[in-house]
Amino acid sequence: MSGLFPRPRAVVAPGAVHVPEWLPPERQRELVAACRKWARGPVPLRHTVLPGGGVMSVQTVCVGWHWQPYRYSRTADDVNGARVAGFPDWLAELGREALTAAYGDESPVRRYAPDTALINFYDGAARMGMHQDKEELSGAPVVSLSIGDTCVFRFGNTENRHKPYTDVELASGDLFVFGGPSRFAFHGVPKVCPGTADPASGMSRGRLNVTLRETGLGTFGDGRQRRSREFPNSSR
Ligand SMILES: O=C(O)CCC(=O)C(=O)O
């Protein structure tokens, strides 16, 4: 929600950029509507079960590629075996717009071609522990969009899940991009602030987070190594 004091764009670490209130309410509602549809199937929104038997408090559904700990596949073998919904062109375009907002209109940005989205729903008690997004073979940035309740997003270092880290409040419509030297930084969500969602976002409760990523797996899932570092550092 626009306040009296607009929050400024911030470079949290080299390549990690926070752009507050980037996605306007109407586009938030459109994205929420699309996520609601994906949450119904072909693979349902569910709590991911970890290999050790733990269950994530966040509920997740994917499009393009299905993420399960710790790999991508086209079918949700750990859920119902269904093939995940296709990744729409408009979502890739949204990713390129987001990257331009964070990094500027540079040529690697124009070539950004995300092919998977992880859609996470947080109720008031859900959290996400510190982790790296490293199942992708591409080094292209992760684009993260937040809708609904505000959260504390913890952005750490690339070495371990401990300090130094920076806590950033992500509110509805906020964009956070991490690429370049920060692409494999540990990050997590230690806290969601229930009741802070503006219904104009399309979320009456809870928090939705959509991360767009390039898997680097290619059309045929050939797994060619492509850890490109061609994206700008954006330390501006
Ligand atoms: O909810 C968020 O802001 C972070 C999500 C995340 O870290 C992930 O999906 O890997």
Describe the structure.
15% of the residues lie in helices and 31% in strands. The radius of gyration is 16 Å and the shape is globular. A hairpin with a 2-residue loop joins strand 5 (66-68) and strand 6 (71-73). With 236 residues, it is of the alpha+beta class. It is built from 3 helices and 14 strands. The model is unreliable at 221-229 (pLDDT under 50). Strands 1-2-12-9-14-7-4-3 form an 8-stranded antiparallel β-sheet, covered by helices on one side. Strands 8-13-10-11 form a 4-stranded antiparallel β-sheet, with no helix packed on it. It has a two-stranded antiparallel ribbon with strand order 5-6. The longest helix has 16 residues, at 25-40. The protein has one domain: Sandwich (Jelly Rolls), CATH 2.60.120. Residues 118, 120, 128, 133, 144, 153, 187, 189, 209, 211 line the site of 2-oxoglutaric acid.
What features would you highlight for this structure?
single chain, 15% helix, globular, oxidoreductase, binds 2-oxoglutaric acid, Jelly Rolls, alpha+beta, Alkylated DNA repair protein, 14 strands, iron, 3 helices, eight-stranded antiparallel β-sheet, 236 residues, four-stranded antiparallel β-sheet, Alkb
